[in-house]
Design goal:
3-stranded antiparallel beta sheet, globular, Arc Repressor Mutant, subunit A, alpha+beta, 3 domains, 8 strands
Length: 237
């Protein structure tokens, strides 16, 4: 087992090189098989456990570069500024102006186990951490705060009314938002229109999958292909 000083250096070097590790990796770095010893060495440095994979991945607190939702992904492991999966879901729903559907949350969280999110949502609703409303055959999750939930419902209805009234209208700002989301840094392949739509709707941008597909077609973007800058760009005027 390394001394405190040597352990700090070894851990910093490990995470500077690998960014993320599992318990077995950290044990090897520190020369111990004791979980207690590992966490005693990690605690002074500040560490995070993943909200994916039942918290089996670890990183130092200063490694992640969180996106606007407070999420950071390294390969298959996801980390959240909020902490656990439950805490992350509550923060995302509370922070959404229109509440969030399961599809929107799934698109943001990229959970490798499909039922992990459903189980988490069920537990949060049962524990009164979130509210749940039906939404056209889907489930809409809202803040546990009744006043905030009422505001989210109202904005959600307004957003749907606007989409129904002018389904083919897409503003220049929306086109730009779609392209930025589709070509965002860190995505090796162009994401699907449904994922782009879900991510943007989670941020309050009114755009459905069909509209995203139209934008993709116009700029020659094909899901599953390596991202590339489109040949033409929308005018900012």
């Amino acid at each position: 087992m390394l001394s405190s000083e040597n352990a700090e250096k070894a851990l910093k070097n490990f995470f500077r090189k690998h960014f993320v590790g599992q318990l077995a990796d950290i044990c090897k770095v520190l020369g111990t098989s004791s979980r207690t010893s590992v966490f005693r060495r990690l605690k002074p440095l500040g560490y995070l456990s993943s909200f994916t994979h039942a918290g089996r991945y670890y990183t130092l607190a200063d490694v992640p570069q969180f996106d606007p939702w407070g999420l950071w992904f390294y390969r298959e492991a996801g980390f959240s500024a909020a902490g656990t999966l439950k805490e992350t879901v509550v923060k995302l729903v509370d922070g959404s102006p229109t509440g969030m559907t399961t599809a929107e949350l799934r698109a943001l969280l990229k959970l490798p186990v499909t039922n992990a999110l459903s189980n988490t949502l069920g537990s949060l609703v049962q524990g009164a951490w979130l509210q749940q409303d039906p939404l056209g055959g889907r489930r809409l999750y809202l803040s546990a705060d009744h006043r905030q939930a009422d505001e989210q419902r109202a904005r959600q209805q307004q957003q749907r009314d606007v989409a129904l009234a002018s389904p083919a209208t897409v503003t220049t700002e929306t086109v730009i938002a779609v392209l930025v989301e589709a070509l965002r840094a860190g995505e090796a392949l162009l994401v699907k229109p449904s994922v782009v739509s879900s991510r943007l709707q989670a941020r309050g941008v009114t755009v459905d999958t069909a509209q995203v597909e139209q934008i993709f077609a116009h700029y020659g973007l094909r899901p599953g292909k390596k991202t590339a800058v489109p040949a033409s760009r929308p005018s900012r005027s």
